[in-house]
Amino acid sequence: MRKIVINNQKGGSGKTTTAVNISAGLADKGKKVLLVDLDPGASTSIWLLGGERPEVEKDLFDLNSGAELISELALKTTVKNLDIIPFSPIRHRNTKSLKESPNKSQLLKKKFQNLPGNSWDYVIFDCAPGLNLSTVNALAASEELIIPVVAQALTLYGVIGLLETVESIQLKLNPDLHIAGILPCRVDPAIRHNMEIVELLIERFGILVYNTYIREDIKLAECPSFFQTIFQYDPKSYGATDYRAVVGEILSKDNK
N or C, which terminus of the chain has less Cβ within 10 Å? Predict the structure, then answer.
């Protein structure tokens, strides 16, 4: 079971679009995928559950529950092989007890460690922008981090800040965490500045940058309005082609 966090400390980075469409792309390849929505905005949950925000009585961070809670909270989506644990507003009620827990940073790590390995092939965590306790838990529970970045000025500084966070997590909570890849998003090849940013990322971070970048595509902006992934909405679009290629790069690292 590969556990991957999708995160960038800056908002508007294409994080949710990337989390949903990578998850759907992996599912389309026959992989069993669990997408965990840790963003209070709940955009991922609304997108994949047809605009609904299901009322749940339990939260993934329930201090009194173990790994069985993961399967209990997982819901089917309209995408074959893709399940989701939606964001739970109940978490806000438990914030105080969560922060007072001595293991507050490793609750997810312990739950997923005790989850049967054949439950899903991939677990994808979609986190909120910035760094909160939920994101720290996801980083502590995962082995891989994918960083989506918009091809704009100041992008480099946001990536450097997140790498510093990763180093801290590696030292204190999870030595197995590593950068799976940096993914340039919303790239218009016709705009010179966009391509300069992509080149700058490659110059600075080398092989950490995916061979694929996600081109600017209005279809990627439209598909959430129809509660469809890009592969359902327009499988021949630039967005579908690019995310399919990224999924191929992710799959190539299986068993490595």
Answer: C
